[in-house]
Design goal:
alpha/beta; Rossmann fold; 2 domains; five-stranded parallel sheet; 11 helices; 9 strands; pyrimidine biosynthesis; EC 2.1.3.2
């Protein structure tokens, strides 16, 4: 695996291998007073975030540090980006400094793919990089997509799949509902693709105004009636309403959205007893999900966060430690 740009690049065996590695790394850390593995000692991981983030940025940093990598955080406001430097020049600068992996979040869809193309091209034509033992071969920097616009968020989908495996015992044959602002959600797109690859049946539930053009070609079913879908779901994933990406009225009011598509306590009672409740965060409590539902025993929101560290450790391991493909 050279880069992780999209879950569409993973087949079922590759995705399962990442999830299995995540499980093994979690087990390796159990009982350790100092949570450190020497796996990536000498490697340098840079997180480059052009959008705000808590869970993704911090979990990648923790993942790198727990595997003994040197981790560096770069924010747009604190870098030469604020002086007008292009994304390409910033990425190539970091690669030339010896970055073995750049984890990037950017508001433009496709940005991670462009970065991968640039560093691959530079690696094949620009000579060896400095500051790393891989400089002898000139191996390009690995790129991890930590969210590109409304396109994809592959590590979020992987951590959601890891959480579902833990809670349900498996994913194949399960019915998973994804509810809310699908139009602006890179999480929804990545989850639909990955869960379908792993054998789940996925149902998208959203108002027509919050569904993207071409959704009928996705490997899922679409519904507009949440109550009708709940009794048959093994898990439900509530999406964040991304008001910062909305220009215009996509629904009449927050109250009406909550009435039609929020997971209230009454709605949660329609779910089977074994059903799992997920949310990628941050949650808008009272609109997307009732506080009591978010904190209930069948809610796996904090488990998603914990699994996020181990899954991102697995991704870095497969990219940088020479794991068999």
């Amino acid at each position: 695996m050279r880069h992780l740009l999209s879950v569409a690049d993973l087949d079922a065996a590759e995705a399962t291998a990442l999830l299995d590695t995540s499980d093994r790394l979690r087990e390796a850390l159990l009982g350790r007073e100092v949570r450190k593995l020497p796996t990536l000692r000498g490697r340098t991981v840079i997180t480059m975030f052009y959008e705000n983030s808590t869970r993704t940025r911090v979990s990648f940093e923790i993942a790198g540090k727990w595997m003994s990598a040197d981790t560096v955080n770069v924010s747009a406001s604190g870098s030469s980006v604020s002086k007008g430097e292009s994304l390409r020049d910033t990425a190539l600068t970091l690669s030339s400094m010896g970055a073995d992996c750049v984890v990037v979040r950017h508001p433009a869809s496709g940005s991670a793919h462009r970065l991968a193309h640039w560093v691959d091209t530079a690696g094949s034509t620009g000579g060896p990089r400095i500051g790393t033992d891989r400089a002898v071969t000139g191996t390009p920097t690995a790129i991890v997509n930590a969210g590109d616009g409304t396109h994809e968020h592959p590590t979020q989908a992987l951590l959601d799949a890891a959480t579902l495996r833990d809670r349900l015992g498996g994913i194949a044959g399960r019915r998973i509902g994804i509810v809310g602002d699908v139009l602006h959600s890179r999480v929804a797109r990545s989850n639909v693709l990955l869960l379908a690859t792993l054998g789940a049946e996925v149902v998208l539930v959203a108002p027509p105004t919050l569904l993207p053009t071409g959704v009928e070609s996705w490997p899922c079913r679409v519904s507009h009636e949440l109550d009708a879908e709940l009794p048959a779901l093994d898990a439900i994933m509530m999406l964040r309403v991304q008001s910062e990406r909305m220009h215009g009225g996509f629904f009449p009011s927050a109250r009406e959205y909550a009435v039609r598509f929020g997971l209230s306590e009454d709605r949660a009672r329609l779910l089977p007893d074994h059903a799992v409740v997920l949310h990628p965060g941050p949650m808008i409590r009272g609109m997307e999900i009732a506080p009591a539902v978010a904190d209930a025993p069948n809610a796996a929101v904090l488990a998603q966060v914990r699994n996020g560290v181990h899954v991102r450790m697995a991704v870095l391991y497969h990219l940088l430690a020479g794991a068999p493909e």
